[in-house]
Amino acid sequence: MVAAPPRGCQVRLTVNDLGVRRGSKQVLRNVSLDVPDGAVLGVLGGNGGGKSTLLGALSRLLPITGSVRVGETELSAMRREEVARTVAHMAQEFSADFEMLVYDVVMLGRTPHAAWGTSDRDHAVVMACLERVGALGLAMHSFADLSGGERQRVTFARILAQDAPVLVLDEPTNHLDIAHQFELLRLVRATGRTSVIALHDLDLAARSCDLVAVLHQGTRYAYGTPSEVLTEQTIRTVFGVHATAVPAPSGAGTRLLLDPLPRTDSGEEPTPPHQKETTA
């Protein structure tokens, strides 16, 4: 087996011709990505477009065709514990149907590093991660008693405690108010780690990601910087939203005026009674 990249290092994530099949259905096909060291990649797409499947494949939770490389190492060449030390995966939901202290939830992130129980270092890492997400005061609270936003922040602390060079986050801004959405994505960027984040908010992706990948009908439809990818045509095709690009007031980039209304039965596009702005 090939050793995992050293902890704390930045690594390039390279995906070549990735495919995932569930039973008789080909969910993803021919997906290739190249995420530089320390870059934040936002994954966008409509419901059922394959975002969660892609993130599961990047964490080796699903069988794939093609390859996923972290640095110079094939993910498939690593033992399970090495994968867990290399890629930290945050799912959309973390079960709260059982009583567990917040401290213990975050300590789960140290499992790949704990040979024989927990250590003083593990304790220090857990407390530092809770402090980093603004949840230190919740350490001795029951996870089941937390609000949805608090659970998201604690779950992110668990991912940070895993101390992996690659973060894979599936809709991490769910249940968070706007201020905490931006704060969490700021924290992701502040880690300096190579990160792949599934998002549904175009504005968050435009503001917070270095690169954007748009999935459509199980394959990569567009890939590049937010300004390159979030075009009128892409938004219309993938999201079914009518967009008009106008210059941003700052003079940097463009702003998209979005009309979320569906087409009429005649196939004509209705005149929007109001529009929503988002930055690209």
Question: What does this protein look like?
Answer:
- The longest helix is centred in the middle third of the chain and has 14 residues.
- The strands form 3 sheets. The chain has a 6-stranded mixed β-sheet with strand order 6-7-8-3-9-10, with helices on both faces.
- It has 2 domains: 160 residues, P-loop containing nucleotide triphosphate hydrolases (Rossmann fold); 40 residues, no CATH class.
- It has 9 helices and 13 strands.
- With 280 residues, it is of the alpha/beta class.
Q: Which secondary structure elements does this structure contain, and how are they paired or packed?
A:
Blueprint: E1 13-22, E2 25-35, E3 40-45, H1 51-58, E4 65-70, E5 73-74, H2 80-86, E6 87-90, H3 102-107, H4 120-132, H5 148-161, E7 166-170, H6 178-190, E8 194-198, H7 202-208, E9 211-216, E10 219-224, H8 226-229, H9 232-239, E11 242-247, E12 254-259, E13 276-279
Parallel strand pairs: 3-8, 3-9, 6-7, 7-8
Antiparallel strand pairs: 1-2, 1-4, 4-5, 9-10, 11-12, 12-13
